[in-house]
Amino acid sequence: QVQLVESGGGLVQPGGSRRLSCAASGFTFSNYAMSWYRQAPGKERELVAVINAVSDLTNYAGSVKGRFTISRDNGKNMVYLQMNMLKPEDTAVYYCRVRLQASKVYWGQGTQVTVSS
Question: How many percent of the chain have pLDDT more than 70?
């Protein structure tokens, strides 16, 4: 079955960096775009970044552009989110997501990132 397992969250000071990882299994990873979403308390889940299957196309939310970088390793079935210059407003649960078909969307369990001094 499809599994997405995020890791790397934690407490970070403003201006700091953090790298999130997502380990994928149960599907042909190299065939699908992957994305990161986040959900802050009291807010809706929002798209943070997306990367296509062969890593030649990425897209970012305006709020993270220039600070976050999404990447993937198809040999390891991993997708990453490098987060730099973190701000308190980046505090959220971060989720890895894959859409295999229109009606088949899978999410990881999420990893908490807290940006605070």
Answer: 100
